[in-house]
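Hi C.,

You asked whether I'd gotten around to modeling the 576-residue construct. I have! Everything is below, sequence then structure, no commentary in between.
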Amino acid sequence: MMTDSLNPDVIYHGGKIYTADARDSFCEAIAIAQGYIAAVGSSDALLKLAGEHTEVIDLEGKVMLPGLIDSHMHPFWGGKQLRGCNLNYAALTVEQTLAIIQQHLDDDPLQDPDDWLSVSAWQRQGMVPAGADMSRALLDTLNTRRPVVLFSNDCHTLAANSRALEMLGIDEQTPVPADGKIGRDARGRLNGILEDAPAMRAFDSIPTGTPEQCELIARHVQKVLNQQGVTTVMDTRVYDEQLIAFAALRDRGELTLRMCGAREITPDSVDGPQDAARAMDEIVAFNQRWNDAQWQPAPGFGLTHVKFFVDGVLQPPTMTASLLQPYRKNRGTHASPDWQDTDECGDLYFTKDVFESLIDQCGRAGVHPHMHTVGDGAIEMTLDALEKMRKAWPDKDLRPGLAHNELAAAHQYARFAELDASAVLSYQWAGLPGVLISEEREMLGEARFPHLEPQGRFLDAGARVAYGSDWPIDRLDEWYNLQVAMTRRAWDADGQPAGPRLDNDRDLTLIEVLRSATIDAAFMIARDSEVGSLEAGKLADVIVLEQDIFTRPPETLYQTRVLRTVVGGKTVWQSA
C-alpha cells in the first residue's frame, strides 16, 4: 500500500512488521514521510522509493508494531506517586507501614508542618494479617506535625491523620456525598478513611507543587511510557493541572506522547435530570479548550470524552461495586471463615434518571461517554442508558467505553456488541493470587464466579475490547499486563507462576491482545483514522522490539524490551 509521496524521510526494511490493519497483515518494510506513513510493503518495493536524503534503517528481522495505546490510565497521578514515600504495592503489617513512613519523615528535608506527605502504592487489601487496616489514630502515632495521607493502590481509599483531615476541611459535620464514604468508628468519630470519590477529590486537592515541578512530573511520565512503547494515552480523570504541564512541553516541542483525556462529571455536580444539559455543556467547553481536532505528527491533545464513576470497588473490605445480586460476606475470621448471604448489592453513584439524562446529553453533544463500571449492576444501568441514547440519537458516532467490568452477567456480553460499546479491560486483574480467587469465589458464589474478570467472553460475543492499564492502580508494566491476558495468572519477577490460573475464561491470543492495545483502543478513543495501525496516510507512531514476540511462548511476553519508539516519524526513545 503506498501514497503518492516519493523520497520518504526514512525507510525501515527487513523486518517483521505487524500492521494491525483489518486483515492483521504483516509486511517487511515501512516508509515514513513528514511524520506520516507513506507506504507499507516489501523491502524490495519500498527501497526503490529512497532518495538522496532518505535514511534507510535495516531492522535485521526485528519486530515492528504500531505504538501502544493505553486507553485507560491516570498518567499524572502515576507520576505524582513516583515521588515521595512509596510502599511499592507490598503486603505489609501496620507496624511495617508506619515504620517506613516514619523513616521517610525522618529523612525528608521538608520539615515545615504544612508540608504534605503523600504515601502511595498502599496495598490496603493486602495488609497482613488479613483484616488489618490503617486509621487516623494509627497515623497520629507518627512523630510529625505534618499532614500525612496514604493513597491506596486502587486509588479508591485514602487514610489521613488528624492534621490532614483538618487541612482537607473534613470534620464531623462534613456531609457524606452520594459517590463515596467518609468513615467513622464505633463511636461515630472520623476514623480517617475516605472511600471512592471523597478519597480521589482529597488526593486531587493536595498541592502538587510549582508549575516547574508539575512539568518535571509530566516529562518523567512520558519518558517511562515511551520506554515501554506507549505512544498514546487516555487519561480517564483529566484536569487542568496536568494538561497545563504537558502543554508546556508541547509548546517547547518536547512532548513525546499523544494525550487524550476525559473530564469527570460527579453526581453532586448535577442538580437533577434537568441539569444534565448544563453539565454537559461545561464538558464541551472544557474539551474545546484543549482538543486538537486534527492530529499532527507532533504530539498534542485529544479531548472528546466525559468520565462517569458509576460504582465503586468489588474487593473487600470496600465492596462498593454495584451488583445485580447481593454480596456474600465473611462473618467469621480469615482463619475460620463463615460466608453468609446478605442483602447488600453495593452502590450506584448516580440515580437512574440523572444518569440516563447525562448519557442522552452525550448523544446530543457528541461527547463520548467513558464509564467506571466494576460490577454487573453498574454495567446493567449503563447499558440500559446507552440503549436509550442509541435510539434517541441513531446517527451519532459515539464510542462508549465501559472500564473494568470485573464482574459481568451472562447476558451482558452480547449487549456490548449490539450497542457498539467497548469493554476497556486491565488484563493484569485476572492475575489473582490463590487466596483472592478462593475469597472472591465465596463472595460471589458458583453461579457468578465464571464471569469474574472476563476477557475472552467479550470477544467471543462480538464485542470490542480495548486495553487500559489503569496505572497507577498497579505497577506500570505494559507487557506483563498483556501477558496476563494470554495466561490468566500472575507471574513473579523470575517468570514463574505466582498463583493458580483464573480458570473461568479462555486465554487471549497474541493478535487479540495486540489489537486491543492498538487499533481497537484507537477506535475507543475516537482516533482510529489517525493512529492505531500501520497504514498509508496514518501518523507514523511505531515501535521496534528486541524480541520476536510472535515466536516466543506467552509466558515470556513480560521480557519484551522496546528498542525504539517513534511518534509522528520522530524517534522519542531509543535503547542504548
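If it helps when you're writing up: The chain has three domains: 10-67+537-574, 81-205, 267-506.

Thanks,
B.
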